[in-house]
C-alpha cells in the first residue's frame, strides 16, 4: 500500500514486537462516507458500551423523536442512549446482542416511521463560558463513548484534570480492513481538530498530538490542511510506521513518548489522555449542534460485501440490514471489528453498537483456515511478536496445564489480546483463546475465593457467638446458685423450712429464666443466620 | 455453534515449512561431507530418515494419535537428518537404525512427542551410539585427498550392510590413509598425539591436520556455517544461540591457548573442527529443547561452547558437542525461569515470588 512521505513532527520511538498483516484497506477506503438507509426496526442494546447497562426511560408504545433520550446513565459507569431516528418503541426485551458470547440482553426496539424527525437540539457553542463539570455532563448526556472500539464512557476518561499535559488523538487505525477513521480524517479533518480543541478546553494547558500510521497519506494531508485552516499551529502530527498494533493505546503512547504506561496504571499517570478521531467528531457535534451520538461511521468490507465502503450507520441497525444493503449473501464468516481483535457475530439480527467500527463480510475461505493446531515447538516467534514483551510460549504452556498461578507469574494479565502471537505461530495454536480461558478462570476463582472467605468468616462468627452464649449461661447458673446459697444462709437454721421453700422458688425462677433466655437466643440466632 | 475466535488472520508459515528450511540449509555442509567422505553419508541419511518415519508412524499408532498430520510436521525427519549428518560414513546399518529409533521413541515420544521433550533427540541418539559403540562411532574415513582406497557408492553400501566391501575387503582397508596409517579425525588425532607427549606444533605438521582445522573438515564446517547463516537470515533460527556457542567456544579455548599454546588448540582450530558449525547452527538451535527467552538463549549457547571445549580438551571423547548440548538441555527450565524479559509497564523485571495483585 501507498505510504505517506510526510515526516513526523515529533520523534517516534519503537515498541517491542508487532506484525505486518495484509492491510486490506483499499477495498473500503476509496469511496466517500455514505448515509446508510434506515431499517424498519432498530435494536438498541442497553449495554451497548463498556460499563453498566443504561436505564430505559421510555415505555413500549411511546413515540420517540430522533435524538430523544431513550436510556439514561446509571450515574456510575454507563452512558445515555438516544433514539437514532423517529418511530415507536415496540418492545423492551431481551434480544441477541453483538457480543462474542452470543448471549441475549435487554434491548429497546424501535419501529422506525421513515420521517427521521429530530427533537429540538440545544447547541453549546459558548464553550469558554462553560464550567468543566457542565462540559463533562454535556458529553455524558450526549451519550459519547470512545469510538475506537472499546467504547469506554468519554466523560469518565476526561474526569481527571490535574497533571494532564498532553492530548493524543489516536488515528493509527492499525487493524487490517478498517478504514472508518481514515475516511473520517480525509473528509472531516477540521471537525476532528475542532473536537480536539473542545477537549483541550477541559484542561489548563495541554498539547495536542495526532498519532497516525503512514499508510493513510490522504488523511495526513487532510490533517495538515485542516490545521492550517484552523490556525491550530501547536497541534503536532506524528506519523508512525505501519505496524500492528500501533493503534493500541499503550503501544501508541510508547511510540509517541517512549514511555510505558505503568503496570496497573493509566495513561493519565504519564500526563496523557487519548481519544479516537471519531470521538473528537462526536464531541464537536455535541457542542456545535447539540447533536447526541446516534450513529457512527462503520466500515463494511470483506470479499462477500458487494458495496464495500464506509457508512454513517444509525445505532441499532441490524447487521442483516447492512448485509442485504451490500448484497452479501452467505458470507463465510461475519466479523465485528477487525480480523485481529474482532469477534465472529453469532447472529445476523443483532444491532450495531457504539463499539462497532467494522463489519467484515468475509467470503467462505477469506478468514477461516483449516489447519489443525500442532504442538508448540517453543520457537519463540510469538515472543518476538508480542508488543507487551511477554513470553506467550510460557503463558500457553501454563494455561494449557491449568497452572494459573504460574501463568499469572508470567504476567498473563498484561496481555492485551492483540493476537500478534497467534498470527505468527507456525503451529497454528489459538494462543489468545488459551489466555482468555486462563484469565476468565482466574477471575472466577477469585470470585469463588472471596465467597468462600466470606462464608468462613460467617461460620467463625457464628461459632464464637454460640460459645459466648454458652459462657453467659454458665455464668447465670453460677449466680443463681450463689443467690440460693446466700438466701439459705440469711434465713438461718430456725427458718430452715422457709429457706427450703425460697431455694426451691429460686431454682424454678432460674430455670424459667434460662429457658426464656435460650428461646430468645435461639430466635435471635436463627434470625442472624438467615440474615447472613 | 462453532464460532471461531480472533485473530482471524494468519501468517502462512507452518512448522513443516520451518523444518524443510532446516533440511535445505544443511545442503552445503552435506555436499562437503559427501565430497570428502563419500556416499556413505547419503546412505546413512536414507537409512535414518526411513527409520525415523517408520518408528514415528508406529508409535503414533500405538499412542492413538493422528498419524499423518503429525508425521508430516517434519520433526522426526529433521531429527533423523541431523543425527545422520553426525554419524561416521560407514557405520553399520543397524547402529544407525538403533540410534534413530531410540531417539524417536525414548528421547521424544516417551516425553509426550514433539514439543514436550527435554533433551535434544538427535543428540540422545548420538550419545547412545557413542557410549555403546565407541570404536565404530569414532572410526571416520580419511578425507578424499588423503584416502588410499576411496570408497565408491556400491562399496559404501556393501560396507554398511555387510561390514566388507564388494571384494570382501574389511572395513579397516577403507580407513587407511595414503601413508598407510589408519585415519582418525583431526580432533581425535590431536588428542591421542598429545597424550603421547608430542607438542602441538609437531602434530600440526601431520597431513590430517592441514588447513584451518584439518583436511576436509574445515570445508564441512564452512558449509554448515553458510547454511546456518542462511537460516538466521531467513529468521528460522535466532542469532543468540549460534553466537553464544561460538563465543563460548572462542573464549574458553582462548583462555587455554593463551595459557599454553603448546598443549591447547587454538580458537580458530576449534571453530572449524569436528561438529562445531553443525552443532552451533543446527543442533543447539532445536527450539524445543533450547532456552526460549532471548537472554536464556545467550547463556544456553555460551554454556554449550564452553563445555564443548572442556570436554574436547580434557574429556575421554574427541568431540563433545552432543554432551554439551545435553548438559545444557538440563539447565533450560531454570534458565527460562530466571531470564524473563521485562514486561511492558513493569519498572523492573519481575522477581520470583513477586506476585502483586492484579
Automatic annotation (TrEMBL), chain A:
Q: Which Gene3D superfamilies does UniProt cross-reference here?
A: 3.30.70.20, NADH-ubiquinone oxidoreductase 51kDa subunit
Please provide an example of a Pfam family that matches this protein in its UniProt record: Complex1_51K
- Give the Basic and acidic residues compositional bias ranges: 467-498, 520-532
Q: Does the keyword Transcription apply?
A: no
Quote the record's binding site residues for [4Fe-4S] cluster 2.
386, 415, 418, 421
Which keywords has UniProt assigned to this entry?
4Fe-4S, Cell inner membrane, Cell membrane, Electron transport, Iron, Iron-sulfur, Membrane, Metal-binding, Repeat, Translocase, Transport
Query: What are the binding positions for [4Fe-4S] cluster 1 in this chain?
Result: 376, 379, 382, 425
Which residue ranges does the record annotate as region Disordered? Answer: 467-532
- Which cofactors are required for activity? [4Fe-4S] cluster
* Top-rank taxon, per record: Bacteria
Record's function text? Part of a membrane-bound complex that couples electron transfer with translocation of ions across the membrane.
> How does the record describe its quaternary structure?
The complex is composed of six subunits: RnfA, RnfB, RnfC, RnfD, RnfE and RnfG.
* Protein name per Swiss-Prot or TrEMBL: Ion-translocating oxidoreductase complex subunit C
Q: Gene encoding this polypeptide?
A: rnfC
Automatic annotation (TrEMBL), chain B:
Q: Where in the cell is it found?
A: Cell inner membrane
One Pfam entry for this protein is NQR2_RnfD_RnfE
Q: Name one GO cellular component term.
A: plasma membrane
> One biological process GO term for this chain?
transmembrane transport
FMN phosphoryl threonine: modified positions: 185
Q: Which cofactor does it need?
A: FMN
Residues in a coiled coil are: none
EC number(s) recorded for this UniProt protein: 7.-.-.-
Q: How does it sit in the membrane?
A: Multi-pass membrane protein
Oligomeric and partner information: The complex is composed of six subunits: RnfA, RnfB, RnfC, RnfD, RnfE and RnfG.
Q: What does this protein do?
A: Part of a membrane-bound complex that couples electron transfer with translocation of ions across the membrane.
Give the similarity note: Belongs to the NqrB/RnfD family.
Under what name is this protein listed?
Ion-translocating oxidoreductase complex subunit D
| Originating species | Kangiella profundi
Phylogenetic placement of the source organism: Bacteria, Pseudomonadati, Pseudomonadota, Gammaproteobacteria, Kangiellales
Amino acid at each position: 500500500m501507498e505510504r505517506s512521505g510526510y515526516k513526523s513532527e515529533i520523534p517516534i520511538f519503537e515498541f517491542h514486537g508487532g506484525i505486518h498483516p495484509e492491510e486490506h484497506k483499499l477495498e473500503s477506503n476509496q469511496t466517500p462516507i455514505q448515509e446508510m438507509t434506515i431499517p424498519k426496526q432498530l435494536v438498541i442494546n442497553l449495554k451497548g458500551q463498556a460499563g453498566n447497562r443504561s436505564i430505559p426511560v421510555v415505555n413500549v408504545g411511546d413515540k420517540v423523536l430522533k435524538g430523544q433520550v431513550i436510556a439514561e446513565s446509571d450515574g456510575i459507569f454507563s452512558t445515555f442512549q438516544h433514539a437514532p431516528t423517529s418511530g415507536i418503541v415496540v418492545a423492551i426485551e431481551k434480544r441477541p446482542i453483538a457480543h462474542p458470547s452470543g448471549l441475549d440482553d435487554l434491548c429497546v426496539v424501535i419501529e422506525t416511521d421513515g420521517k427521521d424527525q429530530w427533537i429540538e437540539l440545544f447547541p453549546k457553542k459558548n464553550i469558554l463560558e462553560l464550567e468543566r463539570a457542565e462540559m463533562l455532563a454535556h458529553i455524558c448526556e450526549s451519550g459519547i463513548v470512545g469510538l475506537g472500539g472499546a467504547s469506554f464512557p468519554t466523560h469518565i476518561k476526561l474526569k481527571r484534570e490535574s497533571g494532564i499535559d498532553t492530548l493524543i488523538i489516536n488515528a493509527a487505525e492499525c487493524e487490517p480492513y478498517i478504514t472508518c477513521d481514515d475516511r473520517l480524517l480525509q473528509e472531516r479533518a477540521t471537525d476532528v481538530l475542532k473536537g480536539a480543541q473542545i477537549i483541550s478546553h477541559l484542561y489548563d494547558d495541554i498539547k495536542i498530538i495526532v498519532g497516525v500510521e503512514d499508510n493513510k497519506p490522504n488523511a495526513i494531508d487532510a490533517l495538515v490542511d485542516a490545521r492550517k485552516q484552523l490556525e491550530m499551529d501547536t497541534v503536532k502530527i506524528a506519523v508512525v510506521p505501519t505496524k500492528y498494533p500501533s493503534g493500541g493505546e499503550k503501544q501508541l503512547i510508547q511510540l509517541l513518548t517512549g514511555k510505558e504506561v505503568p503496570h496497573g496504571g493509566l495513561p493519565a499517570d504519564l500526563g496523557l489522555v487519548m481519544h479516537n478521531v471519531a470521538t473528537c467528531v462526536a464531541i464537536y457535534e455535541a457542542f456545535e449542534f447539540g447533536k447526541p451520538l446516534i450513529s457512527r461511521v462503520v466500515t463494511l468490507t470483506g470479499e462477500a460485501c458487494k458495496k464495500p465502503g464506509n457508512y454513517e450507520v444509525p445505532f441499532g441497525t441490524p447487521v442483516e440490514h447492512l448485509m442485504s444493503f451490500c448484497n452479501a449473501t452467505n458470507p463465510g464468516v461475519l466479523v465485528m471489528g477487525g480480523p485481529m481483535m474482532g469477534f465472529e457475530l453469532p447472529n445476523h439480527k443483532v444491532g450495531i453498537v457504539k463499539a462497532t467500527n467494522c463489519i467484515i463480510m468475509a467470503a467462505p475461505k477469506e478468514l477461516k483456515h483449516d489447519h489443525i493446531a500442532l504442538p508448540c515447538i517453543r520457537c519463540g516467534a510469538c515472543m518476538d511478536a508480542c508488543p507487551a514483551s511477554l513470553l506467550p510460549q510460557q503463558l500457553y504452556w501454563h494455561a494449557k496445564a491449568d497452572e494459573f498461578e504460574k501463568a499469572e507469574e508470567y504476567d498473563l494479565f498484561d496481555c492485551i489480546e492483540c493476537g500478534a502471537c497467534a498470527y505468527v505461530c507456525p503451529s497454528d495454536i489459538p494462543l489468545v483463546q488459551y489466555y482468555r480461558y486462563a484469565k476468565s478462570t482466574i477471575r472466577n476463582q477469585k470470585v469463588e475465593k472471596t465467597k468462600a472467605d466470606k462464608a468462613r468468616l460467617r461460620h467463625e462468627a457464628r461459632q464464637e457467638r454460640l460459645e459466648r452464649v454458652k459462657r453467659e449461661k454458665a455464668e447465670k447458673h453460677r449466680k443463681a446458685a450463689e443467690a440460693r446459697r446466700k438466701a439459705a444462709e440469711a434465713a438461718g437454721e430456725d427458718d430452715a423450712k422457709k429457706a427450703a421453700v425460697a431455694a426451691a422458688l429460686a431454682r424454678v425462677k432460674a430455670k424459667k429464666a434460662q429457658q426464656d433466655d435460650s428461646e430468645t437466643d435461639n430466635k435471635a440466632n436463627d434470625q442472624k443466620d438467615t440474615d447472613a | 455453534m462453532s464460532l471461531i475466535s480472533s485473530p482471524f488472520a494468519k501468517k502462512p508459515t507452518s512448522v513443516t515449512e520451518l523444518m524443510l528450511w532446516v533440511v535445505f540449509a544443511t545442503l552445503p555442509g552435506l555436499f562437503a561431507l559427501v565430497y570428502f567422505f563419500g556416499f556413505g553419508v547419503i546412505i546413512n541419511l536414507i537409512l535414518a530418515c526411513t527409520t525415523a518415519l517408520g518408528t514415528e508412524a508406529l508409535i503414533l499408532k500405538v499412542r492413538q494419535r493422528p498419524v499423518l498430520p503429525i508425521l508430516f510436521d517434519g520433526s522426526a525427519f529433521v531429527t533423523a537428518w541431523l543425527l545422520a549428518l553426525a554419524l561416521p560414513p560407514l557405520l553399520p546399518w543397524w547402529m544407525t537404525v538403533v540410534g534413530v529409533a531410540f531417539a524417536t521413541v525414548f528421547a521424544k515420544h516417551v516425553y509426550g512427542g514433539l514439543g514436550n521433550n527435554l533433551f535434544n533427540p538427535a543428540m540422545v541418539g548420538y550419545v547412545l551410539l557413542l557410549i555403546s559403540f565407541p570404536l565404530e562411532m569414532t572410526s571416520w574415513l580419511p578425507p578424499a585427498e588423503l584416502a588410499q582406497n576411496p570408497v565408491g557408492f556400491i562399496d559404501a553400501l556393501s560396507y554398511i550392510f555387510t561390514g566388507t566391501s564388494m571384494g570382501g575387503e574389511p572395513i579397516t582397508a577403507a580407513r587407511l590413509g595414503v601413508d598407510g596409517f589408519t585415519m582418525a579425525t583431526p580432533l581425535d588425532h590431536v588428542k591421542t598425539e598429545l597424550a603421547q607427549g608430542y607438542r602441538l606444533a609437531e602434530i600440526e605438521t601431520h597431513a590430517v591436520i592441514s588447513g584451518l582445522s584439518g583436511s576436509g573438515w574445515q570445508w564441512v564446517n564452512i558449509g554448515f556455517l553458510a547454511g546456518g547463516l542462511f537460516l538466521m537470515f531467513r529468521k528460522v533460527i535466532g542469532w543468540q544461540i549460534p553466537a553464544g556457542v561460538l563465543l563460548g567456544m572462542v573464549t574458553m579455548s582462548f583462555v587455554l591457548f593463551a595459557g599454553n599454546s603448546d598443549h591447547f588448540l587454538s580458537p580458530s582450530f576449534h571453530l572449524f573442527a569436528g561438529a562445531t558449525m553443525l552443532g552451533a547452527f543446527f543442533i543447539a538451535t532445536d527450539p524445543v529443547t533450547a532456552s526460549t527467552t532471548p537472554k536464556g538463549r545467550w547463556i544456553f549457547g555460551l554454556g554449550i561452547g564452553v563445555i564443548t571445549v572442556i570436554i574436547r580438551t580434557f574429556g575421554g571423547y574427541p568431540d563433545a558437542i552432543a554432551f554439551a548440548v545435553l548438559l545444557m538441555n538440563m539447565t533450560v527450565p531454570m534458565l527460562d525461569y530466571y531470564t524473563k524479559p521485562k514486561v511492558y509497564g513493569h519498572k523492573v523485571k519481575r522477581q520470583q515470588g513477586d506476585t502483586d495483585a492484579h
